[in-house]
Input
Amino acid sequence: MSTLAFLSTDATADSRWTPIARSPMQRQQRERGARFETRHGWELAVAFPNESEMLESVGIAELPQFGKLDVRGAGARPSATRCTWYQMTPQRALCITDATITRSVRAELQESARQVVDVSSGLGSVALIGPRAGEFLRRITELESFPASGVVCEVHGHVLTINGGFLLLFPQEYGHYLYEVLLDAAVPFDGGPIGVDGVPRGTIW
Amino acid sequence: MVSRLRAREDERIDRGRPVTFTFDGTAVRGFEGDTFGSAMYAEGRRVFSRSFKYHRPRGLVCCAGQCANCMATVDGRPNVRLCVEPIREGADVNGQNVLGSVDRDFLSAVDRFAGPFTPPGFYYKTFIRPRRLWPLYEKLLRNAAGLGKLNPEATREGRFEKEHRSVDVLVVGGGSEGLQAAIEAAQAGSSVALVDDGPEPGGALLLTESGDEPARALANKAREVGVELLCPARAVGVYEGNLVPIEYDNVLIRMRATEIVVAAGVVEQPLVFPGNDLVGVMLPGAASRLVRFWSIKPGERAVVITADDSGARAVETLKAAGVRVAATVDLRATMPETIVASGKKGRVTGVSIDGDSVRCDLVVASGSPQPAHALLSHAGARVDYDAGRGVFVPVEVPDGIRAVGGAAGDVGQPGLPRPSFGGSGSKAKEFVCICEDQTTKDLRYAHAEGYDSIELSKRYTTVTMGPCQGRLCHLNSVRLYAETSGTDESLIGTTTARPPWSPVSLEVLAGRPHEPARRTSMHDRHKKLGATMMWTGEWRRPYAYGDPAAEVRGVHEAVGIIDVSTLGKILVSGRDAATFLERIYPNRFGDMASGRIRYGVLTSDAGRITDDGTIARLADDTFYVTTTSTGAGAVVEWFEWWNAIWGYELDVVNVTGSLAAINVAGPDARALMERLVDIPVDADSFRYLDARQGHVAGVPSLLLRIGFVGELGYEIHFPSVQGEFLLDALVTEGADFGAVPFGLESQRVLRLEKAHILVGQDTDSESNLLEASMPWILKLDKGDFVGRWSAEQVKARGLETRLVGFRLKTDDLPVEGGQIVGDGQPVGRITSVRRSEAADAIIGLAWVPADKAVEGASFEARVDGELIPAEVTLEPFYDPDGERLRS
Output
């Protein structure tokens, strides 16, 4: 195993063990009627009741399965298309990847960066999607030009832009809290949760 | 008496939509578009409240939400200004600060009899003897004075939000100048928002004949060019960075603007004369609003006394409403020596001007209109007194702020009224501050007592400190002080304007409550296993799953499982990582082999213990550092702060949230691990203080062979998203070993049996390594390190106190923090104490005088007031040789 292999979410299923990754929002998602499926080793909330209505205002989709790589030292950006690069400082970047390519992107980045740490498990990710996503975001953070890092709902996180909305990244240990706050903040907008499959194609990549 | 006029074309009420509410239990009918104040006035009510101190009847004065005269309790919510609060069906409106009702308030006896006992600062002079009666006096005074009452049982009602916004230009004030400024800015390509406290923009234009159309045209033009109109909304103040909080419905908008245009207009100023607070004395704007907005006849017979054109406009409006104007005084043309209003039962019945009496039921009076400069002052503008016009005008407005219109001092050339028209003949009270019931006599009294600065006077008399926040009394109090002291107003100066300029409720400021809590990825599983949760810093952790004593036995006799995900976890990697750690920790790391672990204690540069944990070397250039549960953030900052100075080539990455951690401890821990891991865990392959990587139930993990709880143990660090899965696997596979999950309480007993310290509990901000009995960790034969000099100083001066273990010879458990007593004096304290079945005693850690730090020495601890003998123990209480730990 590589020196930092224990940080990777690449759990190995075998005849005896089938590791499952779960998000801290799962209990609340079940309470709201989510349907779950297991994909890429994750138990994901793929759909919620009435989620198409949410998308007319602001839909809140948890997308925990993304890879997240903390990249230190100036290095080349990955060649893959299904990833997002957020240059936080000249010497530090965050690379968000599709779950299926995290390993290959990490390997590619390690060739030129000083250090690449897999923080997929450490950062939760939630997409805010819909025509009122911007208005909604102004209720939960004073950040205003994106991508940016700062306080979101009293928790330090990152806000990236995606098509038709925003992607919030935050310490996973606040996940249950943040999900509750986001869903509550969505009430005046008639917004609510949507599942992974409810995210319109092309929203992220 | 019904005062509603016939329907007028430009009235704001919809007569087809009646609305009914109650005031003090009596039904009041108004129309949609009315305020509570206008509806009550239309139905003949003239007394709306009782004054703060004297309980004098008070009526409408401004009809603009400026003063306190119409404040009442609406649906249990105190201090609502009825003159601007839109009516709603079924509302329950009640007078406040009364004993009885606003019409018949028994506390009005204060006005007649208590004057001699209530001069300014009376609570320092009267009601102070006998001292034992002060609680009674205080109760009486608090009941007699004040505003509405808060309901202590009230709970949060409604929903309050905060919104963060930014614009190029924010215009405060929706009068003609404000609208024009907004339109010009928007046409120049700026993003513009305009805030106005009225239900529609227009400001003073709306108070003039044929002013509605131009106001609406300007508002429409503003909308067309993209100006965002926020009304009714109130700018609370101007803060650093051009931040303007705006109360807009149930949302507090935190607006930042590149430029703020203050177009807040002017504030009409009352004249100061005896009887000026009688019901029926009002400002010209109030009379105009009653007529023009709500089609109400303000009175039958009026006297108008003003210092500018507002008088002429008021006369015009009053006459159009059928009010007979009995006399008009334009102070620009005529300056009377005295004006005295007289009344009956608190209502004005006439006014005497230089001795000429005129019968009336309405006095419309105002002095020089004061530029509304408060927001400019918040931003740092200076205000100067304009002696010719008798107003304070803003000067030296800071960059990024602009004033236009009346707020900038564009108030024409008003007449300069006398600071007081009282003369010497009248005995009637002459109010400078109607919110706080401060009269000219009170202010002169304060001045005579030596409070000759307006800032001191403000604090002593409370003038300008009432709900109007000086809108209607600041100018008059300064002018009266200038007259009293024989100086001019520019030397008196102004009081400091502070936010909030507009009243704002705490619930709006608070917004939605947020209480971020950190949970480990196994939180829900702990609850399913029956855990009682507790706070440790921001974290929620299991206290116990039932009986902590049984959990302790389980760990000693079989195997226990504890979630230690809250430990801080930091990667330190790079060419200089080992050198860096050598320099920041007091012990050595450069000589540590890969795959090995050492305990480390961090100290400040003053040598005080700040954190502790383990450091595992994963590779030549990579170390894995753990910290206390609440320490990770501070340790990362500490590392980065020092390396900013040292400039070593390394990276510090906080991976606390990325990794969950479980400690599996007990004599059967190895057997349990063998069922789950894909690497050898026997004693030779995986020694005490080894670090290895492997898969645990298929999950990639870092395993640390350490033992905080004193038994053979493995700490598994792995991706937190697999926390539930791995805990399930351990509990399931450990069932036939009798594996038990254990919580913090059990962990505290177990670690105390080993005399392992908890930083922050057994140490404080003064604790150093030598006195904390950890000399072995201090490597003074290596190079410089943080805290070295301080450690050398402690060594040189000798130890004064020591942290030692103790056994207590009693069955009573002392409290943590309890005293250690020597020669009858407190000489130390207990930091941790628990009952230990394994040690068959009450055991603990305590700071004692250094000469007591000898095996078997005795001291006394105070337990429930009694002194109980204790015996010092320098060895761990359990497995002192560490055989179980190393097995």
Remarks:
- Chain B touches chain A through 53 residues (CB under 8 Å).
- Residues 270-367 of chain B form a domain with the FAD/NAD(P)-binding domain fold (CATH 3.50.50.60).
- The mean pLDDT of chain B is 95.
- The longest strand of chain B covers residues 161-172.
